[in-house]
């Protein structure tokens, strides 16, 4: 799903609760991180967040459903 698709999907929802649920659904779409990817932890976040790269492709994980959704949005932007 592209960033524009995500943005459009969020824009059509009126309810903040529905927007939050959709954001968390975006996080469920993250591709699993390959075992041999080069990963870095995001320091300063209260959740555990990793941003990883392999062969020019970025991957991410987080222990919070909301943060996973936010990270999915960020990854869709690049």
Explain what the structure shows.
It contains 3 helices and 3 strands, in the order ααβββα. It is an alpha+beta fold. Strands 1-2-3 form a 3-stranded antiparallel beta sheet. Helix 2 crosses helix 3 (65-77). The longest helix has 13 residues, at 16-28. The two termini are 12 Å apart.
Strand content: 15-25%
Q: What is the strand arrangement across the widest sheet?
A: 1-2-3
The span between the termini is 12 Å
Global geometry: globular
The total count of strands amounts to 3
Mean pLDDT: 95
- The multimeric state of the shown protein is single chain
Order of helices and strands: HHEEEH
* Helicity range: 40-55%
Rg over C-alpha atoms, rounded to the nearest angstrom: 13 Å
Q: Low-confidence segments, ≥5 residues, pLDDT <50? A: none
Output the structural class. Answer: alpha+beta
Instruction: Count up the helices.
Output: 3
Q: Report the major sheet.
A: 3 strands, antiparallel
Q: Which key phrases capture this entry?
A:
single chain, 78 residues, alpha+beta, 3 helices, globular
Task: Detail the topology: elements first, then pairings.
Blueprint: H1 3-11, H2 16-28, E1 38-41, E2 49-54, E3 57-62, H3 65-77
Antiparallel strand pairs: 1-2, 2-3
Helix pairs in contact: 2-3
């Amino acid at each position: 799903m592209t960033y524009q698709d995500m943005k459009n999907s969020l824009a059509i929802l009126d309810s903040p609760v529905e927007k939050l649920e959709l954001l968390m659904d975006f996080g469920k779409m993250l591709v699993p991180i390959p075992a041999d990817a080069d990963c870095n932890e995001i320091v300063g976040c209260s959740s555990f967040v990793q941003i990883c790269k392999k062969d020019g492709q970025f991957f991410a994980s987080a222990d919070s459903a909301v943060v996973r959704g936010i990270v999915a949005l960020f990854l869709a932007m690049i």
